[in-house]
Amino acid sequence: MELAAALKDGCSQPARRQNAVALNNGVSMDKKVSWTVSQVLLATNGRFVSGETETAFRAISTDTRTLKPGDLFVALSGDRFDGQHFLEEAVKKGAAGLVVSVIPKKKMPVAVVEVPDTLKALGDLAAYRRRLMGNLLVIAITGSSGKTTVKEMCAVILAQKFAILKTEGNLNNLIGMPLSLLPVENKHDIAILEMGMNRPGEIARMTAIANPDIACIVNVQDAHLAGLDSIEGVARAKGELFERGKSWARFCVNIDDKRVKKLAAERSQKQISFGKNRNADVRATHVRNEGEFGMAFTLHINHKKERIHIRSLGEHNVTNALAAAAMSYAAGADFDTIVKGLEKFEPYDKRLKIEKIAGLRVVNDCYNANPSSMCAALKTVQAMNKGNKAVAVLGDMLELGDSSVKAHRQLGETVAITGFNSLFVVGEFSRKVVEGALDARMTINQARQVNSNDEVIDALVEMVHLGELNEGDWILVKGSRGMRMETVIEGLKKQLEMES
User: The Mur ligase central domain covers which part of the protein (predicted)?
Assistant: First the structure.
């Protein structure tokens, strides 16, 4: 499909609002985020229990630690917490109202709204807020890896021309995504929302809340298998973004990913393809790895092309850049704006970011890990290394379910095959990683199972003292978020800088 045709009919640049005022029940929504009791009841279909019916709220809060005076506190409950236990604390901190699923036994001196499910109510509030902003263009991004990088790339591009709201950090689940959308105001042109999941139905619910105009599945990989059984289950869960998309939405499709391509083929919405495939609407040619300086490639959109350089490391980030370019173009950004934005983008925290510590080149990729992203990180360091030593410090890949043993053993094999000189592994599956490395011809002196991040730090410092690690050598540190592998980098930096 020609890109120009895909962008026709509703894909034009979002217009800025002129004197935009959303009215509901006689209440104007001005620049400050504001809610009334009547709006909360309308959004959630809740029941007013007590308090003043004319109460107004500054914003929505789910955490008493960050709650501000005048907020409406939504008492969420989960496996490890229950917001109902913090109602009095919320009131003491200045909450003007409470949304609860159980009416408190003690009468509260603020407005109280009862709902059957506070998590659903939070989503309903965000969906209501999104409906009020009739001219807002919403972009939704999901994928097994890279979605935060793509979101940030997209934000840098679009912020040059538009007023944007974006997901902060990784607030991408059924709590975080609504909280990211709730602050939207009339001044915003575009909201860029990240959607993560670990079980079926979550993306469908977030899609219903956000009602996106542009949707992108960056990739489908073997992540979160514990809640989805197989990569086919991952594809079905990610595919909910396309399946539940409105008929006039535009889908940005990675045609290099066979599972994403299949998901898109089942839908009738207008589609903009991206990838290295010659048939892609947004594509990259003449890709060159420039080592620690990033990646260079020729960007093609429609009939325009330009040679560009991005600071992000690894070939997989070229695909991330193409995804961001496709969505930005669909949102109304011109070619030059897209080029400038991609070249301006700085790698996001804990994502293949090089830190210099006592002359060592430490690659911080601690944000998260699955088999595909582990492989990409190992290959990226391999491509950058020009004859120096390379050490891999790896933590468990979590949420892989029954495939955990096989995946970790294969990880060890990949470390050995990609030519790393040493391997330190921590976590429940560390032995399996070492076994895989030994099977692929690493020695017991090269591949070591360790008991803690502190033990890794001590081992690395000892290697420096013995001259086994020297200036210019590489250390890759990566693992799932729950492994907190960044503490290895923090500890190594602290010890080596104290000695210098």
Answer: 141-327
Q: Is residue 467 marked as binding?
A: no
Q: Evaluate whether the domain defined by 135-344 bears CATH number 3.30.450.40.
A: no
Burial of 16 (0-12, 13-18, 19+ CB in 10 A): exposed
The answer to whether 107 is a known ligand-binding residue is no
Q: Is 147 annotated as a binding residue?
A: yes
The domain at 22-119 falls in which architecture? 3-Layer(aba) Sandwich (3.40)
Domain boundaries, the chain: 22-119, 135-344, 353-499
Residue 387 is assigned to a ligand binding site: no
443 is in an annotated binding site: no
148 is in an annotated binding site: yes
Q: What is the C-alpha to C-alpha distance for residues 298 and 307, in angstroms, rounded to an integer? A: 4
CA-CA distances (angstroms) from residue 158 to 24, 116, 192, 499?
A: 30, 39, 10, 45
Q: Which two tokens stand for residue 29?
A: 């929504």
Residue 143 assigned to a binding site: yes
